[in-house]
Every structure is written in structure tokens, then in C-alpha cells.
Predict the 3D structure of the following.
Amino acid sequence: MFVWFISSPLSTIYIVLEKQDFGLKYNFANFITRLVSLVIGGMMESIHIALILFALSGLFVYGYLCTSLIKYSNVSLLKSGKVIFSNFLFFVPIGIILLILKFLIISSIILVFIAIIALFIYYLFLIKNDKNMRILLDQFRF
């Protein structure tokens, strides 16, 4: 889900850069790998294997999409990786807390509420530390 979430907004870059042939090949590969993972899981009569293969195929295909689109955009993979990693590190503590609370059989409603609070805190942190966002907010102050 993490890689899919990152690649989703990037997926229009190949259209803007007129790389529709890449988009066709990517979507075909995505379809085939997903289909094969479900067929293998079905042949083995195992839902768990099908889901694991489905998730792994998504990880690799969407990971390839992300790196390819970042390269097409002439953005440094190292710089992009640092941004993604720093945001991922920000998620780790709240992710661990949510997992622990889930295993303690806390209500799903409470878990969603805690996640929303964490998301709100995260966006406050972004607004405070993002220079462009501060400039935008300063324009709307009376």
C-alpha cells in the first residue's frame, strides 16, 4: 500500500511527458503479474499464497513505476528517497502504537480516531516546517 500510495499521484507523469508506450507496458505488466499471482494462489488452493503473491507483485511493479517516473522527471532518486524515508520515519512511532493497540483489541473506531489525530499532528508539523506552506498561509492572514 505504501508504494502504491506514492506511485498513484506520479502515474500521470508518463502522460505529461508523452510516454504513453511506457504506460501501456506498465499497465499490461501490472495486470499480468496480478493475474498470475491470483491464478497461482488458486491452483494451490491457498488464499494466503494468493494474497502474498498479489502484494509482492504490486510492490515490485509499483516500485518500478515509482523509480521510472522519478527518473523520467529528472529528479534525483537519492533526493526522492531521502524525502520518502524521512516521512516514513515520522510514521513508524504512530504505526507501532496503532499496531500495539490493534493487538490489544481496541475498538476500530478508537483506532481510526487516534490515526486521524496523528494525521492532524503530522500536517501541523508539515505546515510549520514547510517554507512554501508558510508563505501561502501568510498571504491569507488578515
Remarks:
- Residues 76-142 form one domain.
